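Notebook entry, cofactor series.
This is the third protein in the set we're modelling with a bound small molecule. For this one the ligand is zinc ion. I'm keeping the input format identical across the series so the outputs can be compared line by line later. Sequence and SMILES below, as received.
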Amino acid sequence: MRNLRGNAAGVTRRMRFERAAQQELVSVAPVPSIAPNGVEWLAVPAWAKSGREKTSWLWHGFSTRRGGLSRAYCVDDAPGELNLGFTAADDRETVIANRRLLAEAITGDAATPLVTLRQIHSNRVILVSAADASSSSSQGWKAGVPGDRSSSQGWKADGLMTDEPGLLLGIQTADCIPVLVADRKRRVVAAFHAGWRGTVNRIVESGVGRMRLQFGSQPEDLIAAIGPGIGPCCYAVGDEVFSSFESQFAYARELFCEVYDSDPIRTKYPMLFLTQRAPGHSPIGPSLHVNLVEANRRQLLAVGLKAESIQLVGGCTSCQRELFFSHRGSQGHAGRMLSVIGIRPGRLR
Ligand SMILES: [Zn+2]
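Returned structure with ligand:
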């Protein structure tokens, strides 16, 4: 079955996808803001302007690898970095200190509570409150982990939502796509983690569905920001990934393209390499790349957000590794970034 399908897909997909050179697909690296504490982070420009979108009630930001105290992933003479995940290679105290720095950069207070997840590529979304948050200064979880109170690992889920001011919801990534959503009318925020599996599992669609159920959120009141992740320039995938998307989305084909080798000799003299190529299996032939940012933008549109309410931060974690951590770009040895959103307490609301 797999062989039959693999060969058929290899032959037919040559005619089915858009084609591009890798360079054409690279998005411009976004320009970070630099906080007084040295943390370099990305704001959504349309949200930073408090006028039209009326987002002065929001806290939000996407971290980069710049700033912070970690030495685990940097070259010898580089300054410390902002690893925000409790990875095996980094020191737990350092990560906690980095999380405090990010909270300070975004909210002005290093002790702002932060809720993160044990992410599992699901479509599971949980409702949280400040009581569920560990202070970013503390070691782990205080309480309020349903069904798993003794665990310091937190909830297994890929989405968070709250209507409570004064805490940050955080999604950890190092290639996967972070998606932040806010309901301007009901003052609700949510954050989702979308790798290719979570995208196929419709984490963003089910997350917005949960917002509707829980808070009565209406799609026309929602704004969303899709953060940096691995871009279509770099995210080569196997035919099985296409098959998974194809089984779920009528528009699946539009999310993929064939990317040509940027080696100028191969581009100029393709006939030299032609005989080495087995359809769909050649390391030198075009490879199939998926655009996860577009896939998640489609999900936001599918649940009724207006196109103009969806902001793309841009950037590719894999080819802009001076700015971002990339799991694939660093062969698995990478820190984690955090994308956070929260409701600012006090009179600005
Ligand atoms: Zn790239």
